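BUG: 3D viewer hangs when loading the predicted structure for this chain

Environment: internal workstation, default settings.
Expected: structure renders.
Actual: progress bar stalls at 90%.

Input used:
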Amino acid sequence: MSTTSKKAYVYKMKLIPANVLGTIIFFLLLAFSFLIKANLYLDMNIGLTFLIMILYLCLHEFFHGVGYLIGGTKRKNIAYGISIEKGILYCMAYQEITKKNILISLQMPFMVLGVITYIIGYFFNIPLLIWLSIINLIGASMDIMMFIYISKLNDVIYSESGEPDQFVLISNEDLTKKKSKYLEIVEIKDYIKSDYQFKNIKKVTISKTSGIILVILLIIYLLSII
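Structure tokens produced before the viewer hung:
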């Protein structure tokens, strides 16, 4: 197989710094909500509220998929998954995609489920929407950092690595000179196009650990409403 001058850089997300950033975002949004006197009082069953928040995070990944479609990704190449043990719900695009495409996908949940939902929740006095937007914006902390990082690169193509906490950037640039506190380059290799032509794509993947945890959470919820 022939290679080109392009290199494939495999990145791993640093989840601890991202979680720290998410915590900072939470307190900033909480402070902002009190400043504008937003109604944060929830008069709902705790179990139901938690379930709605989980479903809302799933919707977060759906909107990543919408962003991929808008940017030109083929529907058949979009897949979803959950890996609770890694703290990740994810949407993957199993094809090489442009910088514009990945940037659209990264910002879709942030804008639609975060910013727009918060504004609607505030003006129509819907506390649940405000909390859902805050939870979504916390979950978008890594999306934000990826957006900022990739937007600064001039020559880049995005692809999946096959791991939910990793991705690949293909470029003629020397990306080792582009540092990030939230992303770590774990492998650099020659670019071979066939490596990024995925087959037998599973549309939905749930790890065994995630399946067990989800069943336990469902049982707890059902017991709470009996």
